[in-house]
Design goal:
The strands form 3 sheets. Strands 7-6-3-2-1-8 form a 6-stranded mixed beta sheet, with no helix packed on it. A 5-stranded antiparallel beta sheet has the order 9-10-11-12-13, with no helix packed on it. The protein is built from 1 helix and 13 strands; from the N terminus they run H-E-E-E-E-E-E-E-E-E-E-E-E-E. Helices cover 12% and strands 28% of the residues. The longest helix has 26 residues. The termini are far apart. With 217 residues, it is of the alpha+beta class. It is globular. The chain has a domain of 134 residues.
Length: 217
């Protein structure tokens, strides 16, 4: 009996506590927990725009120049004729052009002289006649004395004609070179099919002559 009374008292006490809690919610007398309000203004975060990446620049390709040593070119001297094949008497060397239009000689004694007789162009200058200097005639000789300019002249005798036999032909492209003697320089002559006979001394004087053109130096 006593146990039943105690149990009923406990139930009644619990019910009272529940009702008391509900009553405090209704009349607002109970203090509710306070909410925390942040009144500070939000801080402004400034962001610096990122620097755009610089455009990629490709480096210029490096080239290595190849240095090939230049080939040395040495010009061979022109082919020469054997002087002994053209010598008549000591110091006299005679030859003809392959066309037969010119007969020539190199004479080396105390002085060195080269000259030719032949079919000169009509445009060659007229010269004083041999034995008659007051007259003007067509030349029959062209010659050079070493150290002096070449000239046309009229010769009484064909000085560059070989009288003791036929003169040997000097082939195209061969050079007949005769050293100087005494105080004179040497001389050389050659024949080219395109230009004719050319004779020169060692300082650049000389002549080139054919039946169409001529040049004196």
């Amino acid at each position: 009996m006593n146990r039943l009374r105690a149990y009923g008292a406990a139930v009644a006490a619990a019910s009272f506590l529940v009702l008391a809690g509900c009553g405090s919610d209704v009349d607002g007398s109970a203090t509710a927990p306070l909410a925390t309000v942040d009144t500070d203004p939000p801080s402004v975060v400034r962001t610096t725009p990122a620097t755009p990446p610089s455009p990629m620049t490709s480096a210029a390709p490096t080239t290595t120049a190849s240095t090939t040593p230049a080939k040395s070119t040495t010009s061979s001297p022109p082919p020469t004729a054997d002087p002994s094949q053209y010598e008549s008497t000591a110091g006299f060397f005679y030859f003809t052009s392959p066309s037969g239009k010119f007969e020539c000689a190199i004479v080396v004694t105390e002085t060195s002289i080269a000259g030719c007789h032949g079919e000169f162009p009509r445009s060659v200058p007229r010269v004083a006649g041999s034995g008659a200097p007051e007259s003007s005639v067509a030349p029959n000789t062209v010659e050079i004395t070493a150290g002096s300019p070449a000239r046309f002249l009229s010769s009484g005798d064909p000085r560059f004609h070989r009288f003791d036999g036929p003169a040997k032909q000097l082939p195209y492209g061969l050079t007949l070179a005769i050293p100087g003697s005494g105080r004179s320089n040497g001389l050389e002559c050659r024949v080219e099919e395109s230009s004719g006979v050319t004779c020169l001394d060692q300082v650049g004087h000389g002549f080139t002559v054919s039946d169409k053109v001529f040049e004196l130096k």
